[in-house]
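User: what does the whole thing look like in 3D?
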Amino acid sequence: MQGTVYIVGAGPGDPDLLTIRALRLLESADVVVHDRLVSETVMALVPAGVICIPVGKSSGRHSVPQAEINQILAELASNHRLIVRLKGGDPFVFGRGSEEALFLKERGIAFEIVPGITAALACTAYAGVPLTHRGISRGFRVVTGHLKEDGELDLNWQSLADPETTLVIYMGLASVDRMAAHLIAAGLSASTPAMAIQDGSTLEQHVVKATLASLAARVRMENIQPPAILVIGETVALADELNWFAPQTEYEDESMAVWAGR
Ligand code: SAH
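Assistant: Here's the predicted 3D structure for the full assembly of 262 residues, as structure tokens:
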């Protein structure tokens, strides 16, 4: 038997943000190989009896190296029909989904890609920050703040310091000081609105508002932890008007809470 590996985006955490295709695949999967970023509420949708293999870091346990994950997928494909490789957000945005797909392709194993809502889209939407807005932001960029092994950040600061583009940084908590300093040095105003969003779209969502100059200090003061994105740009100021998501809201009327899906 030769199965198919579906490389599926699970979205940012709120299970309502899964695609219908992702949900259908989870419901008919033989095996689910999942990352740490995939929320418990999403994993709760996997029917009882389906084999679930965690391969991401969790407290005290090391993550499975990428080469080993590739190997696991290939082996599963040789004795199962439908394998779901479930990843946080979108599998092709800082998700290594393409590396896994290339590995499968080389071995002649069938695969499909199912997009998911990436953190940059979901977290900003739930924090009330539009990535583009007529007259304010003409586009957006996503970059990783992950440091190289020598501890350096290898980004083109000149091109990133554009006041008409919203910048979203994944994995940027460890480098937030350097990031901000580089952007200011490259000419982006120190007073540019900036934000950190932790656990976006979930009931634990934690949003910190700042300016580019104060972002690093605010992130530390509020003890922001991964997973979190940083958002820098003029549209961040619109969150004052648009922040509709209130996960901690106590609804007076039970039917209202049901309607809001919480
Ligand atoms: N493939 C994922 C990204 C994986 S890299 C996607 O498309 O979203 C992991 C990084 O994603 C985290 O360090 C964080 O920067 C970001 N991230 C993912 N989910 C998040 C969430 N719910 N809230 C805030 N940041 C998130």
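In plain terms: The mean pLDDT is 92. The chain has two domains: 4-114, 119-259.
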